[in-house]
Amino acid sequence: MRTLLSQFCESFESVVRPILDPLNGAAKAFTDATIDLPGREVRANLLDLRHQVEGLVQKVVDQQAYVLLFGPLKSGKSTLMNALAGTYVSEVSSLPAYPCMVYLSHAEDRQFDVTRYNGRAERFTDPQSLYGYITKAHAELAERLRAAESRSEEFEPSLHYPEAIRKVDVRLPAGDLERSGAVLVDTPGLYSRMKFGYDRMTREFRDSASCAIFIVKSDNLFLEQVFEEFEDLLGLFSRIFLVVNLDTNKTDLAEDGSLVPSLEREDPLALIDAFETLAMSAPLKAAAEEGRLRIYPIDLLKAASSRLKGTAGDGHRSGRPNFDVFLRDLTDYLNSTDYLVAFLGDSLRRAQHLLDETGAVLQHEQIGALQQAAEDLDQRRQDAQRRRHAVGRLLGYDWRQSFLDLEEKLTPTIRERARTFGAETERKLDDILNRWFQCDDSLQTLLEDQLSPALEQFQKDLNGFVQQALGDEVLAGTAGVMLPTNVSADLYATGLDLSAIGREALASVGQEVPQRAVDTPLDAAAIPIKRRLMDWFLLRSRSKVREQLLGGVDRPSLRIPVETKAKRIGEEGRAAMRQEIDRFKGRYFHETLVRAHKHVVSEYSTSAVHTMEAALKKRDQELDKELSVIVNELMEHRKVLAHLATLTNQLDTAQNGIAELADQYAETEPTELIQPAKGSLDSESEDEFAIHEIVPPAPATPVTEATIEENEPSSAHEPKSADA
Fold first, then answer.
1. Which of 627, 609, 651, 106 is nearest to 355 (CA)?
2. Within this chain, do residues 391 and 343 fall inside the same structural domain, yes or no?
């Protein structure tokens, strides 16, 4: 039969379940990121929220009654679970005291699912394997906990050790749990050193219409510290059952030295009266008076034994009568309209609370930092793309023409200075020739020691000037070229230093232009030598006469007296020698100019073009690599942001859906929740949601007045029925 309650559960699932995938997707996106993203610390919050939302949805869909068991370590929680399940749940009781939630429910086959804080799950089918696994996990957790304490940090498993176990689902054949639909939840022992996140774990169940059972041994009933944290539970649950675990086998020492049954066996209610009168705190007393706290003295060990055997037994020995009262009250509460109303209201409140927490995570300052980082990366990407486009344009620019313009710019200045140096050198050459005719120096001295050095000085002066002129232009800051505004803007965008490129190219040319050896500026064969009369008589040729006078064409090293020069060479020879020197000088000046220009300016231009092209290609590669890194980082950021955007959209939808469900069911009468929904064709009248009694009634036993007084709570302890 489809009731309003089942209709609510279906609607609730359709509203809340869709947020699970976006939560998981956002957390996974953070996990899969290959870089350290801002906001990465919220991943643990997202996984935690997903875990809580998934648990809430499953509880509502299955319409299960979650019964939470609290208490100090070794207080009897596992024994009570045995009694409630009617099955020996050694798989639970034998587990190490690991600080996680253990869920016990019915299944045809035994299976154990371990879920970690990071959401990863693993299934076991062998209890021993599970035991060994948790034992190892416990040691690892303790090590991480000590490490956090050494750093004076409050241990948070989702941050410090995401592999920590969050919960263990134990499913095994337990007929009573199958009939009731109840899920027993064993919580970490109170006051354990590993009680991190305890409040958070328990609060997960408050808004899922769960009730709580607090178990305490009678030996600890009067210890104030036992109830310090228990009082916090009073604000979390509308109904708490306080089970005082008795040891009815205990004995006391009598005056005569004999052993007599203890008060726990003879009059357990007197123990409870003493607790209420002498030790119960004001919050506990107020909760008891309001009916939210019920107290049951039970020998859990004997009650569990009796339950597993299927026998009623004697009240003193089995602990069954008090346990049956407790079981009846628990079942009545879970079948009450109070519970149904709490189920709807608390489910909606829990859903709204989780959605609000999700919204708070999405508003986390680190998420804002992630968005800002993505915007900054996108700006960097655009900037890198602009710079790379600028490099592309610069690679297509005609740099050779720009540097040819430099050559043309320098040419007039260089030629003008070459003419100046040439005129000065001409005067030097004339003076040298005239002085030669006025001394006894040989022709070789004239050529090698006087004319050639003068010509070499011209080369040196001209080369130096060209080098200086080029350096002045280059070092002015623009590498010697004038560029259009758009080209200059592209250079600025790429970050290339044009002056640095100019200096690098200038350095490659060299500081000193290699000097070119000067050829013989005057051919001895070109000097007309006058023959004497004797030369004519002896038929000596001009070459023979020249050789006798100068000392040989190849090496004219003979000293020639001034008088001989005047007679044998004379003015005619002087004019011929000047003409020959002028012819050589003109060619030499031109070649020197061309060579200096080519070596200095042209080679600089060529080197500058190559340097510029190499720098542009290198920058292009650098920008390509930089752009690739930026794009990859941006994609990582945007991938996470896309998941967060999807989560935001789904969050809005879920919040609207929860608000609509709250409005729709706000005025529903509790009794209407189990009535057929409109349009239901199923005519069955059986309550679909009712929690059947966890165990069939025990076989009837004769009840005497003494039995009632001994085993039933007095009016002061009689559990009150839940108010609607």
1. 651
2. no
Let me know how long the chain is: 724
How far apart are alpha carbons 529 and 67 in whole angstroms?
A: 137
Q: How far apart are CA 451 and CA 522, in angstroms?
A: 9
Q: Which domain holds residue 194?
A: 40-363+688-711
User: Does some domain include residue 235?
Assistant: yes
Tell whether the model's pLDDT for residue 721 goes beyond 70.
no
**CA atoms within 13 A of residue 719's CA, in its CB half-sphere:** 26
User: What 3-state class would DSSP assign to 652?
Assistant: helix
Distance CA 21, CA 121 (A): 16
The encoded tokens of residue 541 equal 């040729």
**Contact assessment for residue 713 and residue 33, using Cβ atoms and an 8 Å cutoff:** no
In a 13 Å sphere around the CA of 633, the CA atoms on its Cβ side amount to 21
Question: Which secondary structure element, helix H or strand E, spans residue 129, and what is its range?
Answer: helix 127-150
- Mean pLDDT computed over 129-146: 85
Distance, CA of 56 to CA of 351 (rounded, Å): 8
Closest CA to 626 of 311, 384, 428, 290: 384
* 0.85 surpassed by pTM: no
Q: Please check whether residues 279 and 407 belong to one and the same domain.
A: no
Chain segment 330-378, per-residue pLDDT in tens: 888 877 777 777 778 878 888 998 999 999 999 999 899 999 999 999 9
* Start-to-end Cα distance in the chain: 24
Helix, coil or strand: residue 497: coil
